[in-house]
## 1
Amino acid sequence: MKKLIAGNWKMNGNLSANHALLAALAEGLRVKPACDVAVCVPAPYLAQVQSLKAASMDVGSQDVSAHAFGAYTGEVCAAMLKDFGVRYAIVGHSERRQYHAESDALVADKAKAALAEGITPIVCVGETLAERQAGQTEEVVKRQLAAVIHTNGHCISEIVLAYEPVWAIGTGKTASPEEAQAVHAVLRAQLKAATDMSARVKILYGGSMNAANASSLLAQADIDGGLIGGASLKAADFLSIIAAAQ
Ligand code: PEP
């Protein structure tokens, strides 16, 4: 399966910094990479990123409303994202689960709203450090994925899944390739039980992936790409991870 390397800029950037980053990425991606590449950017910069991005790169959002339209001040719906050529929408990132109290059910509804507009949700699941230490990793990620399967039925084969252990995000601590693979295998089995088309679902790893550790993580059987936070803000690092995915 073709791997996917997706950057998550989080709430970083400004017009001039984005310009420089996108120019460096476009230069580095002049030869089309063998993997799929995307950057998930703050909503105000979608138009800028669309106009400056490398042709081979897709654009994503970092969230999407569960609602189609209406009186939801501050939210951005999937149809609006579609207007700006958005291909992917991250849903259920741990920072949204944690700081915005997003429930498993809401995350599942957001995935459904994205799919309804032909946008691929990148559904994030992952355990906290306390949950890992309590031996609950499998139970937590299975519960989070089960909600998305329940709400999305056979469309589940259209999602991208991202395993992001919360303790590894932005901390410099990465799951070892073996630890990550073990969870990816659990998620793969759960998808297999839910759909005949599970083989087409990419399962990304996210959590302090960088130029140095990308190759060993991406070499694992069930790791189909990466969701990259901090390292996606530095063109050279992001390009090295893309090269590791070829
Ligand atoms: C993320 O934000 O999804 C992420 C994985 O961040 P980082 O790579 O900085 O850990």
## 2
Amino acid sequence: MNDKLSNPQKTIEIIKKYDFAFQKKYGQNFLIDAHVLDKIIAAADVGPEDFVLEIGPGIGTMTQYLAEHAREVAAVEIDTHLIPILEDTLQDYDNVTIINEDILKLDMNALAQEKNQGRPIKVVANLPYYITTPIIMGLFESGVPVENITVMVQKEVADRMQVGPGTKDYGALSLAVQYYAEPYLVANVPPNCFMPRPKVGSAVIRLTRHKEKPVQVKDENFMFRLIRASFNQRRKTLQNGLNNCAELAVTKAQVVEALEKMGLPATVRGEKLTLEQFAQLSDLLS
Ligand code: SAM
């Protein structure tokens, strides 16, 4: 019999053995499909040289796969009830460190330094959906050396990460992800691949960090404030939306002048601008 946790029977056995109660607040939907796990490991290109950071190992299903392919794995899990389970399910692997911590509070730079001497790491996760955006933005913005991030996210979020201007899903997340990385959709994953089944569809997406940013901008921070302000009031034209934003301190006249210099109509909305155009607008206004 297959003793791996990707075998649903084994997962049920462990859940029962520890009388584990799934916590909705932590987004606990465990993977029970070996094909999906194979696809994730292949897409992340995990090999014997690699140090991998896994966010939210659950009962260790993906961790077992990672441990078999990587040099070393650190698995960061917030739920204290899962720690004794992980110690049990991962006992055969001496290259895994379990860290009982909230990923949003962990010093990931220090971890990358300690475990990989500051060289780029790989991040793999079936993410807790309630904090997908802060986790991904945290990885990019904190300057953690990252080669790629291969994650299971809500299907709708995967769509938002990949689209360009003029589509309904285009927004601040699309621009932020595309500024830092090249997104690639690995697979769509239906609810029956998880226990318990989530109410939404899921997708695996790989974000390969750009070696060189696709656009140059004078003040990155200002550009992202500008982008957020543009999409906070999505239905407004830029001249009205940005003028209303206290954080930016720009006037309507300044916005109109900048748009004119860029050859854009004064009535344009943020959803029509490319990343290059946001960078240009940021340089003109900052
Ligand atoms: N990797 C496992 C799998 O694929 O079966 C579990 C994935 S489950 C969708 C998300 C996991 O993230 C859960 O184990 C949950 O407890 C954990 N988690 C939720 N919030 C977290 C946080 N802030 N920091 C670390 N882990 C977290």
